[in-house]
């Protein structure tokens, strides 16, 4: 499956348009062609983004806005899931 089709398939699992746009926003930053792809060695999968966004949305103490702060929180969740968080924040 192409990366674009994988993105569409995964993003469609979350119905909310704002959430779908946010997933694309995160993907554009950290995905294989993103400006910050090196955080994940250019190997990030859209399913990882989707999982991290779901994790963020499940936190009832956090008000989701879909801004750069949320993007960085999702990045940190993905780094944590991949075991790389300590590499960036010792």
Question: Care to describe what's here?
Answer:
This protein has 90 residues and is mainly α. It has one domain (3-88). Helix content is 61%, strand content 0%. The protein contains five helices and no strands. It has helices at 3-11, 17-30, 46-58, 68-82, 85-88. Helix 2 (17-30) crosses helix 3 and helix 3 (46-58) packs across helix 4 (68-82). The longest helix is centred in the C-terminal third of the chain and has 15 residues, at 68-82. 23% of the residues are buried. The mean pLDDT is 84.
Question: Summary?
Answer:
By secondary structure, the protein is an all-alpha fold. It is built from five helices and no strands. It is globular.
SSE map:
Layout: H1 3-11, H2 17-30, H3 46-58, H4 68-82, H5 85-88
Supply database-style keywords:
90 residues; mainly alpha; 0% strand
Helix-and-strand structural type: mainly alpha
Please state roughly what percent of the residues sit in beta strands, choosing from under 5%, 5-15%, 15-25%, 25-35%, 35-45% or over 45%. under 5%
**In whole angstroms, how far apart are the ends?**
36 Å
Order of helices and strands: HHHHH
Write down the Rg.
12 Å
Q: Indicate the percent of residues in helices.
A: 55-70%
Question: If helices are DSSP runs of H or I spanning 4 or more residues, what is the number of helices?
Answer: 5
Overall mean confidence score, pLDDT: 84
Identify low-pLDDT runs: none
Q: What is the overall shape?
A: globular
Tell me the number of strands. Answer: 0
How many strands, what sense, and barrel or not for the largest sheet?
none
Give the tally of structural domains: 1
């Amino acid at each position: 499956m192409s990366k674009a089709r994988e993105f569409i398939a995964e993003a469609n699992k979350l119905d909310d348009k704002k959430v779908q746009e946010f997933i694309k926003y995160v993907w554009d930053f950290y995905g294989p062609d993103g400006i910050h792809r090196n955080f994940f060695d250019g190997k990030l999968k859209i399913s990882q983004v989707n999982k991290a966004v779901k994790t963020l949305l499940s936190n009832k103490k956090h008000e989701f806005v879909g801004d750069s702060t949320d993007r960085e929180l999702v990045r940190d969740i993905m780094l944590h899931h991949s075991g790389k968080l300590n590499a960036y924040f010792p």
